[in-house]
Specification:
The protein has two domains: about 5-50, Double Stranded RNA Binding Domain (2-Layer Sandwich); about 75-125, no CATH class. A three-stranded antiparallel β-sheet has the order 1-2-3, covered by helices on one side. It is elongated, with a radius of gyration of 21 Å. The protein contains six helices and three strands, in the order βββαααααα. The longest helix is centred in the N-terminal third of the chain and has 16 residues, at about 35-50. By secondary structure, the protein is mainly α. The N and C termini lie far apart (about 45 Å). The relative contact order is 0.09. The mean pLDDT is about 90.
Length: about 130
C-alpha cells in the first residue's frame, strides 16, 4: 500500500518535513532528530489507514497524563471556564450563557465522546 506521507530532510538546517502526496502540502515536523521524525511520519500514515485505532491510542495517551479525562464532562469544563474569568461582568455573562437549556444535551456528555452532531444539536436549539 502506498504511503500518503513522505519524509524528507532539507539540507539547510537539517529539519525534517513531510510531503502529503494527496494535497501536495509540505509540513515541518519541528525536529532535527531522524528517529523522532520517523515516529511522526509513521503516526501520520497510520492515522490515514486506521483512524479508529488512532482515536483509541490518543485516548490512552490522554488517560496516562490525566486520569480524569475519560470521565470529565462538559459541565466541569464550563465551570472551569467561568472560574477563569477575572472580570465579574464577563463571568456573569458566561454563567448565564452556560445555563441556557440548549446546553442540556451536552452538559453530562464526557468530553472525549463528543461528536460534531452534538454541537449541531445545540445550534438547532438556539435557532
Amino acid at each position: 500500500m502506498k504511503q500518503r506521507f513522505r519524509l524528507y530532510c532539507r539540507s539547510h538546517g537539517g529539519r525534517f518535513y513531510v510531503h502529503d502526496s494527496v494535497t501536495g502540502k509540505q509540513e515541518s515536523l519541528g525536529t532535527n532528530n531522524r528517529t523522532e521524525a520517523l515516529r511522526f511520519l509513521h503516526a501520520k500514515n497510520e492515522a490515514v489507514h486506521q483512524p479508529l485505532i488512532n482515536v483509541q491510542i490518543a485516548r490512552a495517551y490522554l488517560a496516562a497524563t490525566d486520569t480524569a479525562i475519560t470521565t470529565r464532562n462538559w459541565h466541569s469544563a464550563m465551570d472551569e471556564v467561568v472560574k477563569a474569568k477575572r472580570c465579574s461582568s464577563t463571568r456573569q455573562r458566561h454563567e448565564r450563557a452556560f445555563e441556557d437549556k440548549a446546553f442540556n444535551s451536552l452538559r453530562t456528555l464526557p468530553i472525549l465522546q463528543t461528536r460534531p452532531e452534538h454541537f449541531r444539536l445545540i445550534r438547532e436549539v438556539c435557532v
